[in-house]
Specification:
By secondary structure, the protein is α/β, with parallel strands linked by helices. Helix content is 33%, strand content 20%. It is built from eight helices and eight strands, in the order βαβαβαβαββαβαβαα. It has an eight-stranded parallel β-sheet with strand order 1-8-7-6-5-4-3-2. It is globular and about 45 Å long. The structure holds D-xylitol-5-phosphate and zinc ion. The site of zinc ion (ZN) has 6 residues, from strand 2.
């Protein structure tokens, strides 16, 4: 399975509907939505109204990445605003079980994410209960940063853990991804690649998505 999830953080918010429809018409199966609270990360992006507008402009799978503290306070509302999957950070909450339960109750898929410095071993106990792990390959907070190479080892380690604990676990990687490292990441065991600046900064974003999907 190979999926590209363009990150709307790099879209033109003055033309959000146009950019969402562009992704909708592309080979990307998912749309990645980065929510930042200015506390978990040193940046603020957007919240419910923007997610709702994207939802209206595309029926595709909306992959919502919460970079917010205490995600348990907002998971239900993101589900109601149109998320198909809600991913929260392991480092952002002391109530992991509650976060998983809230997502399940709301009928959305559930992902957990780790920052570059957090070992994947810390996710072990939760793997049987979740649908996806999102490995951050840059420090969360901003688009356009450089890919951190040690992420590849984390993907391999997590894939081996998941083969035992949850063979259906999806592995997604986020940060600094382009057609030049897509093959390496798919090869290491990732199924979903998030790409912001490489897609929206390309002269032909739809062709860039196909390049990533077909990277060898
Ligand atoms: C960073 C976000 C990413 C970001 C990726 O905190 O989680 O999704 O948009 O942007 P690029 O692809 O430009 O690194
Ligand atoms: Zn993200």
């Amino acid at each position: 399975m190979r999926i590209i999830a363009p990150s709307m953080l790099s879209a033109d918010f003055g033309h959000l509907e146009r950019d969402t429809r562009m992704v909708d018409a592309s080979a990307a199966e998912w749309i990645h939505i980065d929510v930042m609270d200015g506390v978990f990360v040193p940046n603020i992006s957007f919240g419910f109204p923007v997610l709702k507008s994207i939802r209206k402009a595309s029926p595709k799978f909306l992959d919502v990445h919460l970079m917010i503290v205490e995600p348990e306070r907002y998971i239900t509302r993101f589900a109601e605003a149109g998320a198909d999957m809600v991913t929260f950070h392991l480092e952002a909450t002391e109530k992991v079980a509650e976060c998983i339960a809230l997502a399940r109750k709301a009928g959305v898929k559930v992902g957990m994410s780790v920052r570059p410095a957090t070992p994947v071993a810390e996710l072990a106990q939760w793997l049987p209960e979740i649908d996806m792990v999102l490995i951050m390959s840059v420090e969360p907070g901003f688009g356009g940063q450089s890919f951190m190479p040690h992420s590849v080892d984390k993907i391999r380690e997590l894939r081996a853990m998941a083969d035992v604990a949850n063979p259906n676990l999806i592995i997604e990687v986020d940060g600094g991804i382009s057609a030049s490292n897509a093959a390496l990441l798919f090869g290491a065991g990732a199924e979903v690649l998030v790409a912001g600046s490489s897609v929206f900064g390309a002269e032909d974003p739809q062709a860039e998505i196909v390049k990533m999907l077909e990277a060898r």
